[in-house]
Amino acid sequence: MLTNQKPMDVSCQGNAVLSLIAGAIKGCVFADIVLVKKVNGKTLTVFPMVTGTNASGGSIENQDVYNVPFIQYQAGNSSVKMTPRVGDIGLVIACDKDITNVKKTKGGGPPPTQRRHSYSDAVYITAIASLNDEPTELAEFTGSGINIKSPGVVNINGMKVHPDGKLELVDGSIVDGHTHGGVVSGGSRTDPLGAA
């Protein structure tokens, strides 16, 4: 039987202990980089991008991981909703214990199995910026202001800001370039908005 153990692994008591620990955690998942393959409502199908190796150093092919919940910035009923997209490269962590019952009931209690650090208990944390394309839709907090950019319409409670910056009110009227009929043109100007 082939093993990954080398002579130096048992050359002293410290190395022997480290070798035992390495063997004990082999196969455990703590954090991993994955590719999002499918979005299923509030869970994902992901594929681990770094393969394992066998005793000979050959690659062990990974398999899809199903029903992985994902993080969403949320406090009570307030949220920043960004559902991961197919093709995102992101980070998962594996919970210490079996989270099956929490996923089913949203309640606490003992784990249903003794499973530890498994992909079955993974949670997708976030996409990794340096491994994905530059975003075209964003809210950027610069420290001196907030930039909001979208290639499409930004909808704020029914009021819309179009990509060219034009503002559309709930009734459909465009504020920029808005004109009133039945008014005689002249040299006077109205007071600025908000002026008393």
Automatic annotation (TrEMBL):
Phage protein Gp138 N-terminal domain ranges (all copies): 42-125
Pfam name, any one: Gp138_N
Listed InterPro entries: Gp138_N (IPR041599), Vgr_OB-fold_dom_sf (IPR037026)
Annotated protein name in UniProt: Gp138 family membrane-puncturing spike protein
Record lineage: Bacteria, Pseudomonadati, Pseudomonadota, Gammaproteobacteria, Enterobacterales
